[in-house]
Amino acid sequence: MPCLLALAACGGSSSAPGVVCGAGTRQVGSQCLPLGNATVCGAGTVQVGNQCLPTTATPLSCGPGTQQTGSVCLPVSGPDAGPDAGPDAGPDAGLDAGVISGAPVGDDAGTTDAQGSESTNFGVDSAHHNAQPFDSIASPLAPAWTAQFDGPVSYPLIANGLAIVAVADSQPNIRALDLATGAIVWGPVIAGARVTLAYDAGKIFALDSTGNLAAYDALSGHKLWAKSIAQQSFYQSPPVAAGGLVYVDGLGFGGTTSAIDERDGTSVWNASTFDGSSGTVAVGGGIVYEEESCNQISAFDAISGTLNWFDFGTCTGGGGITPAVYQDQVWARDTFGANLVVGLDGAQAGSFAASAPPAFHQGWAFLLSQGVLSAVDIGANTLKWSFPGDGSLCTPAAVAGGGGQVFVGSSTGNVYELDEQTGAQRSVSKAATTVTCASDNVSMALGSGRLLVPAGNALVAY
What we know:
Elements: E1 25-28, E2 31-34, E3 45-48, E4 51-54, E5 66-69, E6 72-75, H1 97-100, E7 131-132, E8 145-148, E9 157-159, E10 162-167, E11 173-178, E12 184-190, E13 196-200, E14 203-207, E15 212-217, E16 223-228, E17 240-242, E18 245-252, E19 254-261, E20 267-273, E21 282-284, E22 287-292, E23 296-301, E24 307-311, E25 324-326, E26 329-332, E27 340-343, E28 348-351, E29 359-361, E30 364-369, E31 372-377, E32 382-387, E33 398-400, E34 405-409, E35 414-419, E36 425-430, E37 445-447, E38 450-455, E39 458-461
Parallel strand pairs: 7-33
Antiparallel strand pairs: 1-2, 3-4, 5-6, 8-39, 9-10, 10-11, 11-12, 13-14, 14-15, 15-16, 17-18, 18-19, 19-20, 21-22, 22-23, 23-24, 25-26, 26-27, 27-28, 29-30, 30-31, 31-32, 33-34, 34-35, 35-36, 37-38, 38-39
């Protein structure tokens, strides 16, 4: 049974005031930051819109309604996704300064996403709650559609009526599927090796394992900008996008957490970390949390990169796992040390047992440990229920609060629907021969009335 201490909730900060910025700068949160430079295309490329495409490209198999342009598949018709196209065309759109510096209320307290029922990051949101407070999924579970690919599927995103995935084909790529039907809307867009994704304000951000970061218009797949971060040698963890910035964690010689402007790829700040982490950061309440092995936790101001505090831990070593932020606590699993719950000042408040990222809803934590899913009332420090399933449960839980549903997958290919209050099984569906089990790079997505389950080379939609 998890060991938890009673935890107190704290208030958030107020929204950033207006700032008058000078020429060549714009407001991000409460600061004036420089504008990015225009893209200059190199030899062997040609500018199309505001991206650089090869003058020659390997033929692609483009989906219905798209055609090959350079090395990407673009819609046959529709508006150009240029610098001013898309939902963040205005001078201040996409920055979401009031959200990133404010105090979201209710069940989402501590998150920086204001995307409603979209799944914008690994673990559903930037704080990695693995939950949608108001969603429900059709019951009993039955696949609405299944998409098959030639390689393993990443964790999916849900945005703008699309299911967006990176696929490790012979040439890794990004695709967008219609969330209702599974039909290809655009792609494949060729990307780098082992791509991971995030979404914010109409853009998809794709990071490869060598630190190449690119932004794409979510509706068309049109590349908007690209840059090489090159602060470290390895970029194993997914990016996190929230409030107008993309946060990236790299490791190699120590570690570096970087913040990139979503509009143009301008570097906003870089902060050194002790050993670097294989897990992604969590962003909540205007703070970026990075967890490394041996209970080393860093807390950076999301806008400026200022180090607010650092817990040194009990040892040193590379690695690290993705933390989560919920109700003013940081939930940090650890490779070598204990799984700790700490307050927003870094003070230890409890511990817990979990072998996968937790899920959170209405004051409860849903924890997978040794193949058993448990629900724990955080404030009361009580175990509410446990569910062993078929003995092979292996994914993080996903919670649809509107339907009172909890979902968990098994290595046998089963996906279970449970009653959130009692843990009773409502239904079970065979998604595939196996589902993709827990890691800090794979999770289910939940949003817009759909549950998306990665299952090896397939994506199954409920």
